[in-house]
């Protein structure tokens, strides 16, 4: 069915209508008003309708993406903002607590309640035995390249000799070589090997321990804070974690 022109000039064919109006909205409204079936539309009209739908789809995706990006930005900003507030609270808490503990240490020293080998460390407990604070001296250390050679020698010896004799001993000794979350050997674990230097006569064992001793370097020290609560069922001390990765 041909489309009748609403304009007096330019003829009444579809091509003339497109040339005069240049409007997708006009075409669609015209189709709706006349309840025109797509089977009766010219190729030009179909293309105009398809182009309009493509444009609407693009605009919809753009709006959805803009809404998503806005939500993402708002959520990220809120989380980081709360993290910054929490960090300030923890910093303030740490300073106040260490100031209090340092003052308490002076008092405990006057009463001779600080052990000589604690290097200034001590612990406090509530009377009901439910809570405990530990103020511990901690040595900051590192290892030079000789520790890598020591680790290789020790693992080679353990696999070649100890594993064949005693699986339990092998696993216990290998556990001493486990590294912390920073990828470093734990000083206290490696130090426990020093007293066992005569346990085996294999030169790899002795050389590994010697290299560990020589590669150890003290980089500093600090006082660490630890908080504990008594478990209701077992009665054991449980650490109160202030590390988000532990939750």
Describe the fold and architecture.
There is one protein chain. This protein is an alpha+beta fold and 247 residues long. It has a domain at 116-246. It is built from seven helices and four strands. The protein has helices at 14-21, 24-33, 43-110, 146-165, 167-175, 187-194, 203-215, and strands at residues 122-125, 131-143, 216-230, 237-239. It has a four-stranded antiparallel beta sheet with strand order 1-2-3-4. The longest helix has 68 residues, at 43-110. The radius of gyration is 39 Å and the shape is flat.
Taken as a percent bin, the fraction of beta residues is 5-15%
Rg from C-alpha positions? Answer: 39 Å
Contiguous runs where pLDDT drops below 50 for at least 5 residues: 1-12, 17-23
Q: How far apart lie the N and C ends?
A: 72 Å
For the sheet with most strands, the description reads: 4 strands, antiparallel
The number of distinct β-strands equals 4
Major sheet strand order? 1-2-3-4
Helix content: 55-70%
Q: Overall pLDDT, averaged?
A: 85
What would you call the structural class?
Answer: alpha+beta
Q: What oligomeric arrangement do these chains adopt?
A: single chain
Helices, by number, come to: 7
Order of helices and strands: HHHEEHHHHEE
Please tell me what the overall shape is: flat
